[in-house]
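For anyone still unconvinced, we reproduce a single protein record, the chain in one-letter code, the fold tokenised, and leave readers to judge:
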Amino acid sequence: MTSLHMLQLVSPALPVGAFSYSEGLEWLIQTGKILDECSVFSWLESELLRGQIRVEAASLSPIRDALLKWKINNTSEDKTDVINWDEWLLALRDASTVRIQQRQMGRSLLQLLTELDHPLPDNSHGFSWPTAWAWAGLSWNLSKSEAIQAYLYSWVTNQLSAAVRLVPIGPTRSQTLQCNLFPLINKQSELLLIENPHNIWTGDVGATLAQLSHAELYSRLFRS
């Protein structure tokens, strides 16, 4: 049976502000690079196969191990290990706006977990989204595979939420696209569970350029 905490973690009602970001999707749509349902699907598929999201998902397992060690021992060395993972992932993000997004969402999730009696060992909130997600998975006893699967699913959901507001596909077709991506999400989750994140290559230059260019749009619905 699916954990209720897993459902809570992927819920659109999770108060972390994910709905307010498009991660460059808005720029791609306004510049005509994504026009319809087919191109939205192709974009999501390519990111799941070659995007930065894969590195973050693969990092959830070692970050969780580092968090567990910190939780048990509560030493500065253990915290430093978590910090190193967190800063490495942030450094891989070329767009400063995405780094700000990762920090804001991570801080919001850690604040929520503190309110739910799951604070970090030193009660800090200064970690990014992947680290906060790994802590949520550990605190709520999700399996590593569940945490990775939910991470990818949540990212797809947020991208489709943005696409519905920007592309004339409608919520019903959006759900169809999401269902069509389930096999790929499952496959990638299995692969990334055992993959060393330091060995993963990415080929999402287009996503990086879109994220860097989003702040330059004359008008936009989503935060940069």
Summary: Residues 25 and 210 are 7 Å apart (CA to CA). Residues 47-214 form a domain with the Urease accessory protein UreF fold (CATH 1.10.4190). The longest helix spans residues 144-166.
